[in-house]
Amino acid sequence: MLIESRSATDPELAALVTAQQRELRDADGGLDGQVTVVRDDVRYLVCVVDGRTVACGGIQALDRDTAEIKRMFVRPGHRGRGIARHLLIALEELAYAAGHTVLRLETGSYLPAALRLYASAGYHQIPVYGEYVENPYSVCFEKRLPVPA
Known about the structure:
By secondary structure, this protein is an alpha+beta fold. It is built from three helices and seven strands. The protein has a seven-stranded mixed sheet with strand order 1-2-3-4-5-7-6, sandwiched between helices.
């Protein structure tokens, strides 16, 4: 397994984001506002297994101290192998290297594996924030990172 940085213009990343959004629409009934675009202001990582890009995630700076984890997704056929946990750690390291001390994220209440992953990785549930306030399925988490030296 290899975790590497990808640009927002990478077609393999775009395919993963599209697959993620399709899966989420199927699960929650297609709430308004869901988009499949890859954002230029997010720093993306992908996971490559046997030459195939199978997972993605990114961080988006919210302010100097805080970043948000975006687009965490593992292709269904590769779940249950620890890929999401490795990717989450890599995203935390990326945020730390950028000087962020707080990581936030949003996931769906209908995604029990994601809820378990974030809780087991030290994320604590917080009130729903920002663009997620109107989504009845949103669950938000936060984790404090060590202050960079």
